[in-house]
Amino acid sequence: MLQPKKQKYRKHFRGKMRGKAVSGSTLAFGDVGLKALGRGWVTSQQIEATRKAISHESKRVGKIWIRIFPDKPYTKKASGARMGGGKGDIEGYVAVVKPGRVLFEITGVDKEVARKAMWLAGQKLSVATKIVER
């Protein structure tokens, strides 16, 4: 799973997800990409499942770019814990995704294979997506 090597602060606030993606909203590297239509958190497990689906469908031919990184920790309290007692332990890491953000890109394979791989990738994510092409 992806996670940061070091951080300035251990635990973050939840934050707001207002607006559209400012940077990373166009294809920069590949020929076919997956763009977010909705907003939300994408976990490091979802990113890994998506990466595996794309590489399996493309038979590890071509190049894949992951354009998001899970650098925000999210916490969870123990299931039997009572109220109070502070913020819970870090459960995992998420990437904050806003509408318009390109999540994955691929090049070096047929357009049809790339489209199928990106469709499969979209099924693994918790945000609505669409396939974009150069």
The CATH superfamily of one domain is identified as Ribosomal protein L16/L10
Query: Strand fraction band?
Result: 25-35%
Radius of gyration, whole Å? 16 Å
From the coordinates shown, what is the CATH architecture of one domain? Alpha-Beta Complex
Task: Briefly note the CATH topology name of one domain.
Answer: Aldehyde Oxidoreductase, domain 3
Tell how many strands the DSSP assignment holds. 7
Distance between the termini: 29 Å
Backbone shape: elongated
Which CATH top level class of one domain fits? Answer: Alpha Beta
| Helix and strand composition category | alpha+beta
Residue stretches low in confidence (pLDDT < 50, at least 5 long) are none
Kindly state the percentage of residues in helix.
Answer: 10-25%
Short overview:
With 134 residues, the chain is of the alpha+beta class. The protein is built from two helices and seven strands. The chain has a four-stranded antiparallel beta sheet, with helices on one face. Strands 2-5-4 form a three-stranded antiparallel beta sheet.
